[in-house]
Design a protein that fits this description.
- One of its GO terms (molecular function) is transferase activity.
- By secondary structure, this protein is α+β, with helices and mostly antiparallel strands.
- Helix content is 24%, strand content 18%.
- The longest helix is centred in the first third of the chain and has 18 residues, at 61-78.
């Protein structure tokens, strides 16, 4: 196995291509967004075989970087909050704070070009994911509250010997997995259009969901990050273009003896039933309880050492995001 390391060649910041009127207003976070400041950024990447041509032009890394930056700036017109930064307003008299996205604060989304002297096979062949893969992302180990000082979106394009890896880190309070892969889809659509005028297939919906009588600005009962930051199914349904978090945990309980006495199909049926029972009524109960007593999840206290936690849904169309040189060989 190669001991090569990722080398950063250049970095810049990308703003939306055009001015967005909505970006002049505070972008308030909904209850399920406010709960997860201690969670990590969403980080996924697509590994592509290095092409000979892109959009009918001979491949060169400089042309690819230029077109990715240009299409990213257009994608940010639709996903304008990702070019901003988190901002906190504190009311010490009321012992509360209001955290929101200031869409005009900060330099924009970060774009990095890096190189790695390894091949696709060296990345994919080992039984375990090589540690160097962590360096293919800009926000490894960052938590969402870090969005006060780090970009809410960071893209790292790493050129391998025979491939190109596009890694994307997005602050989880701005959106969940559905929002994240929706962003990828819009960005890849714009990139493949190659400068031609394009009506995106599913424009994002930035109208945050709040229960009746609440919002859009919901304060948290804290005045300092130390009070909540630790080292780290609705009816009617929300539109699929909804940008934000619409994720709540559900718990399935059994014993070690029962697990050992049954097969995986039995375990899957238990999990399936828990998901089926996680109804609109239960989600509203969770949110209403949170609104009466707001909190921010602390993973260290949320998960005990005798639990197995599953996340990062496989339902998303990850391989449908192309940038002019075919489908990714891995995610």
């Amino acid at each position: 196995m190669s001991s090569a390391t990722v080398k950063h060649v250049s970095a810049c910041y990308i703003k939306p291509k055009y001015e967005v009127q909505e970006a002049k207003q505070p972008y308030y976070l909904a209850p399920m967004d406010l709960m997860i400041f201690n969670f990590h950024y969403i980080q996924k990447g697509l590994l592509f075989t290095k092409p000979s041509h892109i959009n009918n032009q001979e491949y060169s890394i400089s042309k690819l970087l230029h077109s990715l930056k240009e299409s990213l700036s257009l994608a940010l017109v639709h996903f304008y909050p990702l070019a901003g930064q988190l901002t906190t307003r504190i009311s010490k008299n009321r012992h509360e704070c209001l955290i929101f996205v200031d869409c005009n604060k900060g330099p924009g989304a970060r774009f990095i070009y890096a190189t790695l002297d390894m091949s696709i096979s060296e990345i994919l062949s080992p039984a375990d994911v090589p540690l160097v893969v962590q360096s293919l992302f800009d926000h490894d180990r960052a938590i969402n509250h870090d969005g006060h000082r780090r970009p809410l979106l960071s893209v790292q394009v790493t050129e391998l010997k025979d491939g190109v890896f596009i890694g994307c880190s997005m602050n989880h309070v701005v959106g969940d997995g559905t929002s994240y892969w929706h962003f990828w889809k819009i960005w890849s659509e714009i990139h493949r259009a190659n400068g031609k005028q394009l009506l995106v297939s599913r424009p994002p919906n930035h109208k945050r969901w709040f229960p009746d009588g609440y919002g859009p600005a919901i304060p948290l009962p804290f005045t300092h990050p130390d009070e909540f930051v630790s080292r780290h199914r609705l009816d009617p349904p929300l539109p699929p273009e909804y940008v934000g978090n619409c994720v709540t945990p559900t718990i399935t309980t059994t014993t070690a003896g029962e697990l050992l006495a049954h097969n995986l199909g039995w375990v899957a049926s238990l999990l399936h039933q828990s998901v089926v029972n996680h109804s609109d009524k239960i989600v509203h109960k969770i949110i209403e309880g949170w609104l009466q007593s707001p909190f921010v999840y602390r993973p260290g206290k949320m998960f005990d050492p005798y639990s197995v936690t599953m996340g990062s849904s496989p339902i998303f169309d990850m391989y449908g995001n192309e940038f002019g040189f075919g489908k990714a060989v891995a995610v």
